[in-house]
Amino acid sequence: MYWSTLLDGMLVGFSASLPLGPIGVLVIQRTLQNGRFSGLSSGFGAAMSDTIYAIIAGFSLSYIVTFIESQILWIQLGGVIILTGLGVKIFRTNPAIQLRKQRAGKHSLVSDFVSTFFLTLSNPLAIFLFIAFFASFRVLKPEYGIFGHLIIIGGVFAGAATWWTILTSLVMLFRSKINLRRLFWINKIAGSAIVIFVILAFVFWLITEYY
User: How far apart are CA 89 and CA 123, in angstroms?
Assistant: First the structure.
């Protein structure tokens, strides 16, 4: 039973991570610029954040959900500001300087993990996404008990981590063909894409929420 429970959790985590929003663009950009481990660290940070939201959704922590619902506009605005700033920063990044920092050992995998963790955490709508996935796949059953639900949560992280591993591996196939000039334009495109994704998502949320 527990193997099938784990696979159910992995299916939820993998499916929830598939849409390539601003975090996906960021992971791709970091993989191209800093290498596989930078992309993986960033992806695993996102997976850990998703796992926390899955815990809140799966264990029905209603007081947290209620707080988020009451403050959703301000939380969303904060996330928009942070991610827009990140997009602008990537747009303005000089790849030559970044590569020199990397060779000098100034690049930190821990900072990749932590930054992506908090950036993903700044999107509280993920809670409602996981509630929808849990309901659609019917993976949370009373007979599983606490231990079974914990296995599902572990599966969510494993599924999300699997997706980020696949994505960074695919990106690495093309990394050898990327020179500094192309990386310069990739940064411009990635930075612009993050800003556009964030603004469009926020506008769409405003329209659906208030109109």
Answer: 19
